[in-house]
Amino acid sequence: NAEYMGEQEKRKGHFRMRFSRQPKNAEKSATARGSDLRVHFKNTVETAHAIRGMGLRRAQRFLKDVIAKKQAVAFHKFTGGVGRKAMVKNIKYGGTQCRFPQKSCKFMLQLLKNAESNAEVKGLNANALYIEHVLVNAAPKQRRRIYRAHGRINPFLSSPSHIEVILTESKSVAKSKDIEGAKTNKKVSKKKQARERMRNGMTAGGD
Predict the structure, then answer these.
(1) For residues 48 and 136, is the Cβ–Cβ distance under 8 A?
(2) Could you tell me the pTM of the whole model?
């Protein structure tokens, strides 16, 4: 009986931690997953597409900017009835349609925070993490009802989501501009250098 219970626990644990794919380097990766989250599926799919491949810090800044309506999430797949804004021109391959899915961004920030905590437990450098994999699946719809005229009742369904994230530590990301506080040296043109030399020479001659 004890062996049977142990097998059942193993099966439950395996099912609970099941991901659509495994990280390339498990020792340098951390995962997080949320099931049946009460957040709209289509908006969350587009939000996940926007941050896939980003550094962790950059993705967190982007999601916070979307919540504050400083940046927008471009919509590529679920574009029915989505408005157009000039802000989307700043996004590479952004198209013309975008939204500010604030609830999706809040859920995604919480999941990234969870994955970051798991990475810190494993001793990984949080500033060197990037989003290797993020996937959003449609969960079973949750049912409510709305009452109509003449005694009719129509279904009123929500579209919850399953979300999974894999963060991976990368040396190349640690050296890139995705890391918070990293600065790049500005290039100075030859014309500007010559102008500076001429200005310095005139100042020396005047003295």
Answers:
(1) yes
(2) 0.73
- Asked if residues 76 and 95 have their Cβ atoms less than 8 Å apart, the reply is yes
Tell me which range, 17-26, 80-89, 100-109, is most confidently predicted by mean pLDDT. Answer: 100-109
Lowest mean pLDDT: which of 27-41, 116-130, 160-174?
A: 160-174
Residues 141 and 159: beta-carbon distance below 8 Å: yes
One-letter amino acid for residue 14 of the chain:
H
Spatial distance between the Cα atoms of 26 and 5, rounded to a whole number of angstroms: 28
Pick from 41, 59, 23, 65: nearest CA to 169 = 23
Compute φ and ψ for 110, nearest 5 degrees.
-65, -40
Which ranges of 34-179 does DSSP label H, i.e. alpha helix? 41-51, 56-67, 102-121, 171-174
Q: Which two tokens stand for residue 18?
A: 């099941």
Pairing of strands 129-138, 98-99: unpaired
Tell me if 107 sits within 8 A of 39, measured CB to CB.
yes
The secondary structure of 100-126 as a DSSP string is --HHHHHHHHHHHHHHHHHHHHTT--G
Alpha-carbon 186 to chain mean position? 29
**CA–CA dist 41, 191 (Å, integer):** 53
